[in-house]
Amino acid sequence: MAEYSVFSLIANALTGNRSWKPAWRAATPKPRYDVIIVGGGGHGLATAYYLAKEHGITDVAVLEKGYVGGGNVGRNTTIVRSNYLLPANSHFYEWSMKLWEGLSHDLNYNVMFSQRGVLNLAHSPAQMDAYARRGNAMRLAGIDAELMTREDVARFVPDLDVSPDARFPVHGGLLQPRGGTARHDAVAWGFARGADRRGVDIIENCEVIGFLRDGTGRITGVETTRGEIGAGKVGVAVAGSTSQVLSLAGIQHLPIESHVLQAFVSEPLKPLLDTVVTFGAGHLYISQSDKGGLVFGGDIDGYNSYAQRGNLPIVEDVASLLLTMFPSYGRLRLLRSWGGIMDMSMDGSPIITTGPLPGMYLNSGWCYGGFKATPASGWCFAWTIARDAPHDLNAAFTLDRFHSGAVIDERGAGPVPWHH
Domain Rhodanese, which positions (predicted)? Predict the structure, then answer.
């Protein structure tokens, strides 16, 4: 990482930080590209990076209506895991985990990936049975998993209330030791820099306001606030704004809903929580950032919205769950909160596919899981765009599954997006 070596830090500190080279160029849109990616979030930037790296397609533009890192990639709780039950999800997210494990080296940019473990708490014998089943499925798929007793959990997370008279008594848990966290905005910056260095144009403050078509109806480019741009292929990776963007192409009905998901950070503390804990019975997930703040979240706001801010009932709900599981955190002060827009699919699993129109490719439906999927999502979407066909890892993540009934319903929750 010579570009950000200690010598560079010292030299720039002594000269007013005026000599840093921009991590990516402020590109001017060209009249035409081989590929346009709509959406400069983590998934869009990763797609552009892997198009250039894996497929040699460098005539690519990433169009972002705001600034890089301003969307969901900078509005999440940074958790990375691959602890899924169903084969379609477990293989895909495990590939993402493997990409995470080499991502800083691959990008030559420190994304601060920390494999501190992800622990799912169990609160009943039935939940322990379900975790044993999921853990066995994970191991059969080559994914690490450890079933923990109540005593194991108490030693692993000393601050957790595991007393028998707790409101939600802990029976044990399922640990994925290779899970953890990553610095979310560094992921966006690393992919942006990596794509830029391979020739990709990253164009910020460039909102797509329409799609161009030829006489056959094929998508041939986009209309933007900075003019029309032609393209051989157009990929859409805009997360919670998918319905709005695709409506510009005349597509009014998709199997997704947009909801706000809030996240919270406490004041900085000395190290006290060195893993990720999830409390599924009440829906809470918490870790401690490298800066010391506790980062935590819970359920989505239960109404459709495109706003990046939530309401107080969820704040109260998440805070009460936090204090239920960690009573000793009761005197902490909340430092800040934010909201991201979730594109909740009807079965809780993503969509990475060709279509739904000729010349168009769709990446959407990430629900709560978008951040951890960032590398594999970009890798598989790049493959799909480059080869006009899905890779085996995303072959099941089609739009057609909602017509055929071959849904990938990890929790068996049915077509209720906020239950996933």
Answer: 35-79
